[in-house]
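Hi V.,

Quick status before I head out on leave. The structure for the redesign project is tokenized and pasted below; the design run finished overnight.
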């Protein structure tokens, strides 16, 4: 019988913080649109004699992430130099945290799509600076130092993940959390969120973990899935061929969808870490800690649970409505204003508002609709001032014009016509114009009533009160006869 293997994965994520300036100098942190080497200064370009100073906003965002990850916070943490030579690292060392990082331990809980609950433990969180970028162009190696000194948090998980799917889901939940607490844009395509995956296999039931390989350069959720899946298959092939797994560093080539060996694993000793002499210890005062703790929002998982327990939403709705913070707050506000059936608000939110958000590919915050607008629309429908389909199109009209729903209804005359005289007139016209259907109806084909109501609605461009068109019997047997 073939051996069954247990897959083990630990992730090292690099998170680019969305501070205004870089970690240790006054240069802009975000230089996505800038020409190469235009956003640098002596400090981040690593010129001798320049002195760094710690950006307090980086510390605050680091602390927020520690709190969100349930990590223990070191109120005094230290910066160290990690020494290595590479073209994109002009100073010859990376400022990072080694012996005393800002956060130790912690965990992230999440559910897989099938409902399975997973807890991933965190080894540590440390603040560090990013390196520049290199690329090959026409046989020349080019260096862009704009990204040098951009603040990062590196967060290392324990080997708690056991499939490519779990690793991908963890990253999606982390991305959601980072945006939610406002510390990173977490856009993987822009490398705000990067991840290295450590992968090993061992026969099922064995107590010891296998030797791990580290895959670098994974920059999308799909790439996480493919790279890990490929590496697991490679390791199984090796083991089944009687070979030992060696501890390699491997690169994922996303274009070719293949793994390439980069080097044998370096050890910590190779980096000759030592304390960074130009920077003071990072001290978080108890007052600052409290201030940041108090400013933390309710986190997505807690909110999702509350939407189910307190607002009675199904798990599916609760997940969608807590996908991002703006959506969840919009929904809560709408529920408060509406004061009635939360599922009704949820349906309008998911089917209409989020439909437009998805169509336009923007975030809800960028759209000119507010919770009170949606509630006004639902109430107009409840009051039968407009029908449901007019309500739906009103969502689009509010988004196009930024006007209030009530004003649009008045300006465009979208209100339902409940005027008996007007409806009767249209009914007469439909009856006169369709003698064949009238004959069939008289002959007993009563289901045609729906067709008559439909014709009336069409004629009145959806504005007839359908209940009235039926109930007032303008189109019923008597009037037709
Ligand atoms: P390094 O600094 O050499 O990259 P770390 O101790 O920081 O090593 O660990 C890197 C990652 O490797 C962590 O996320 C950890 O959970 C993971 N890891 C450790 N051992 C294994 C293993 N046997 N299989 C899979 N992942 C592992
Ligand atoms: Mg590593
Ligand atoms: Zn600079």
């Amino acid at each position: 019988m073939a051996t069954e293997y247990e897959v083990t994965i630990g992730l090292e994520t690099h998170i680019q913080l969305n501070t205004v300036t870089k970690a240790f100098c006054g240069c802009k942190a975000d230089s996505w649109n800038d020409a190469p080497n235009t956003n640098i200064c002596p400090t981040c370009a690593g010129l001798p004699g320049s002195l760094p100073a710690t950006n307090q906003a980086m510390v605050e965002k680091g602390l927020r992430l520690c709190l969100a990850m349930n990590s223990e916070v070191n109120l005094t943490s230290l910066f160290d130099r990690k020494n290595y030579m590479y073209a994109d690292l002009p100073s010859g060392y990376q400022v990072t945290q080694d012996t005393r990082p800002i956060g130790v331990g912690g965990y992230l809980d999440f559910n897989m799509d099938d409902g399975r609950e997973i807890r991933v433990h965190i080894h540590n969180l440390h603040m560090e600076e990013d390196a520049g970028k290199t690329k090959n162009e026409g046989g020349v190696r080019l260096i862009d130092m704009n990204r040098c000194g951009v603040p990062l948090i590196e967060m290392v998980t324990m080997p708690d993940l056991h499939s490519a799917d779990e690793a991908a889901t963890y990253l999606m939940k982390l991305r959601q959390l980072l945006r939610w607490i406002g510390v990173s844009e977490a856009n993987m395509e822009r490398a705000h969120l990067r991840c290295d995956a450590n992968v090993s296999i061992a026969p099922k039931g064995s107590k010891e973990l296998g030797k791990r390989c580290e895959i670098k350069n994974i920059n999308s959720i799909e790439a996480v899935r493919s790279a890990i899946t490929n590496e697991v298959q490679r390791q199984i092939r090796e083991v089944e061929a009687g070979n030992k797994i060696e501890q390699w560093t491997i690169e994922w080539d996303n274009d070719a969808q293949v793994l390439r060996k980069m080097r044998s694993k370096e050890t910590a000793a190779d980096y000759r870490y030592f304390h960074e002499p130009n920077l003071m210890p990072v001290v978080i005062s108890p007052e600052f800690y409290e201030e940041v703790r108090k400013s933390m929002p309710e986190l997505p998982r807690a909110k999702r649970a509350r939407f189910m327990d307190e607002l009675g939403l199904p798990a599916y709705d609760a997940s969608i409505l807590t996908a991002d913070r703006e959506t969840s707050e919009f929904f809560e506000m709408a529920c408060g204003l509406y004061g009635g059936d939360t599922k009704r608000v949820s349906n309008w939110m998911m089917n209409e508002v989020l439909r437009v958000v998805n169509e336009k590919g923007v975030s809800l915050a960028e759209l000119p609709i507010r919770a009170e607008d949606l509630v006004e629309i639902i109430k107009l429908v409840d009051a039968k001032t407009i029908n449901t389909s007019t309500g739906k199109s009103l969502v689009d009209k509010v988004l196009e014009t930024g006007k209030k729903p009530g004003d649009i209804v008045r300006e465009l005359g979208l209100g339902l016509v409940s005027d008996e005289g007007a409806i009767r007139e249209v009914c007469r016209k439909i009856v006169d114009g369709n003698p064949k259907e009238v004959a069939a109806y008289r002959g007993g084909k009563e289901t045609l009533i729906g067709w008559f109501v439909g014709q009336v609605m069409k004629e009145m461009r959806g504005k007839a009160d359908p209940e009235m068109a039926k109930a007032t019997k303008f189109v019923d047997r008597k009037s037709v006869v």
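Above is the designed sequence. Residues 12, 196, 214 surround magnesium ion (ligand 2) (CB under 6 Å).

G. will cover questions while I'm gone.

Best,
W.
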